[in-house]
Amino acid sequence: MISATNKGRVIFLGMVLLFVLPAIIAKVVLDKNWYQSGVTNYGKLIVPAASFHSMGLSDPFQSEWKLGYVVPIRCQKMCEQQIHLLQQSHIALGKNQSRVRPILIFTPSSDDYAKKHEQLSNVSVSSQFENVVQSGELVIVDPLGQLVMRYPRVSSQNNMISQSKGVLADLRKLLKLSRVG
Question: Per its UniProt entry, which superkingdom is the organism in (predicted)?
């Protein structure tokens, strides 16, 4: 038979384990990276913060969100498809179209052939811009000129379509939460 003193100790140890064990398990799970965080954005946040102003550029379309595509050195089939999806993403915004301007971003090494797309605005940037966003990538810029998210270059049309859906989802979230533009 267990004495009253031992019974009290067992209950005390049981209570300590009941409250301490979940904290220990949580610590181990987080330290071993067994937990996938609940990030819901598809793009990569641009860290450290960068803006047109910090790169010595002027923001040509203030008070509007910008969805930009950095034109690569040679604009071939994949580039043309990406530009088409950029236009389609803008159309898919529906009532928020007026808040977003699709732009083509030209670095000094970009292919000028893409300037034939007259329905898209062109923005020329310095080579310093490529330190933050590489050619062939998409970027979302807020109305204050801050670069918010970037989307890496993709290699297949299927990946391009799924990336475009992710860009659209992220942009809708940003527009919903935004009080500017």
Answer: Bacteria
